[in-house]
Amino acid sequence: MNITSLAFVIFFVVAILVYRFLPSPYRTGWLFAVSICFLLTWSWNLAAILLVVATVNFTLGRWLGVAENKRKFLLWTGIGFNVLVLVALKYNGFYISTLTSLLERMGVQTGAGGLKLLLPVGLSFITIQMISYLVDIHNRILEPELHWLDLALYVVYFPKLLSGPVERARTLLPKFKHPSPINGPEIEQNAWLIVVGLVRKLILANTLLSIIPAEIFLHPEEYVGQDLALYLLAYAFVIYNDFAGYTSIVRGLSGFFGIELTNNFKLPYFARTFAEFWERWHASLSQWLKDYIFFPVSRALAKKVPNREHFVHLLVPPIVTMLVSGMWHGLGWNFLVWGGLHGLYLFFERLGMGRGPRRVPAEWSKRRQVFSATVVFGLAVLAWIPFRMDLVTGWHFLVRMLSPQAWMLPQLWLVRAAIYGSTDVASWRQFAFPDLRVLLMLIPALWLDGNQYRRKSETFFVDWPAWTKGLFLAIVVLALMLLSFAETSAPFVYQGF
Amino acid sequence: MARAPLQNKSAPTAILIFIIYLVILASSSELIARTAWVEEISPYHSVGNNHYQFEFKWFRLQDYVKQNGGVDVIILGSSLVNTGIDPDMMREAFYKQTGVQLRIFNFGVEGLTAAPNSITAGILVERYHPALLIYVTEMREFVAGTGLDYETRFLADPWLRYELGDFNLPGWAVDHSAALQHYLPFRNWMRADFLETFPLYLKRYRDTTASGYELDRLIGVDIDATPDRNNPDDAKNFAAYQNYQIDPGRLGNLKSILDLRNRGETTILVVEMPVHPTFYAFVGGETVHLQFQQTLKALVEASSGVFLPAESCDDIPLEGRSNRWHLNYLGAPIFSECLGQQLSILADQQNTSFVNVNLAGSK
Fold first, then answer.
1. In chain A, what are the domain boundaries?
2. B68-149+215-350 — its CATH code?
3. What is the ipTM of this complex?
4. Which residues of B touch A188 (CB under 8 A)?
5. Residue A330 neighbours by CB distance under 10 Å
6. A474 → closest Cβ in B21, B180, B189
7. In the structure, what pLDDT confidence band is assigned to residue A376 with cuts at 50, 70 and 90?
């Protein structure tokens, strides 16, 4: 069940109505039940796998909580188990063909098309949440959960199940203890979060994604330089609005149950440094990586190289952290390069900041802030190339985009010929005009971001007078209706991770 | 970035205003869409059907009926009809023989077989009450599976389902809203392939005449060559049509077109397209073709229809074909003229003029 489908709307309305009228002690159970129902719409196998994951982590957590000895062993067993499940199910491309042929040589039938393993949705997100749960218990930051139901709900809670946010057990579990429905103003807040999410996902991201020709990422040599640049820019807005839209929707949905989820996207393209970019982009994952990779690596390094100003302290922690981030997104060289690039960006930034007291970007001059934000944005957009394409194609893409010979002036004579009917136009691409549809879609995208930035509020609509809100909603509904007639549909880009 | 401070003074009012705005926006777009100015700058209409040529024909026929006060003859079929029959030539030929000016419209739509056409035929007869419905067909159409993907997508259209009495909101909205009908030709504006498909759409829209005929400029090559199993194109046809068998389902579709006669005063004429004789090698030879003709003739005559076999108008020169099945700009006039003459003979036999005595029908 897709969260932008009509079936989901009905499912959610029923879930929230029952939740409101249930006595408090039963609400956690109800949330668990609806989450399982949601999972079952994908597959019963998924529910089974996730419940096994929850049970194993629950048991290990309890043991870790009381164990005096072998705590490290228990921790690493837990981490190993979670990573093993992830690798076995998500990264099966690496071994599945070998396993298939091995089984078939042993006389075991694997069915047409070979062995297929199921990838539970959101497994990468669940894995890192489970690891942080065990690490926090090990470090005595968190008491182990005593109620299986609460921990199982932490794993399968449906608003965050598909693509996060990556919630810490220490922040989310207490919210499950006393769930309470919301009233009046909070309802409007959460409703606006959902509206913003729908605008980002269905109007901005889906539309921009369908404008971008898929072949541009396979055969960039067939496109002029300005098309490559423009579609890459469009892709940067697709991936941002897609994921930010999704997060906004699920935060709004969860908010209706009185359970606030982390804000994952805080206008990342306005970041003035890469450190700030990662505080704003997929913030819950970034924070996780900081706590469980960056700091431990830094601490381990400090034991070997006590001088914190040493070169390796600037280089190794960000590179390792971002490489892990790249691998988390997918096991492929391109993801490693993407992570490595961001690691290098962070390294050079730290190197450039120099020693001595650092001023936060907000204290910089306006000119420096704009300049830095432009540089950070430009480099982040370039890094999307290896994120989206294999390395060879990505290299061709980059070289062609930056090559002046690949840029072409608009063919005005051809437009004139077409208007006067002296030639048949096979494609409007022949005109070598920039794709105005991208520019058209960037206007509302920038308007939304600009307003959220200026007003420092993601639901700034709440402050609007009723007539403006009404008009905005009417335009959104009409736009959604008109877009629904198009013969297109795009999955959430981030759902694959 | 924080959420806005909590306040909830205006939420219910905003919802009410939202509904009012929605009504205002929808009704004002509707008013604007119905002006002559909009029609002038964007003459394109669509009902959101995935077959854009069907839509051309649907709206062209509406315009044709508006301009001519009705339609006497509707010719239905696939692309063979679309590029193979020029209603104006046919009208001329009929006029020369009988002195009667018929109003003829070509409703040939690429890829549509008897299954979707039986539905279209029902809607057209219901709406326009033509005196004569000509259904043009050939052997390939009666093979199960031919044109199935077109058929599935075509029949899934909400508007079509609405037309057939299966009420649904999108279908109703599209059928009644001029604003939507003006927007829908551009509905795929955000698709990457729009920059390629829309110029083609415009060209074909421009190339389709007021009576629904689209000219084909292509002259086929090697049409008269004996099919060769080693040739990849021929091999595909052998694979598709050898062991030729008439699908009972498709015959049932043809029967439902023939049964339309019982609904009113519409005569049904089934015409077999004169494909190039080398085609019969794919289906197993002339004997199989003769069996096909006999089956069709028996079915048509049992339903009080008229069957016109391919031999009636097969004097098409080689350069008049764009491939083994389709006629081009040289072949179509010859076939259309012949068809007009055959029609005059039929009119004489049946003692009718095929002039629609009903007014231009509307639902």
1. 6-177, 184-267+405-496
2. 3.40.50.1110
3. 0.81
4. 8, 11
5. 17
6. B21
7. very high
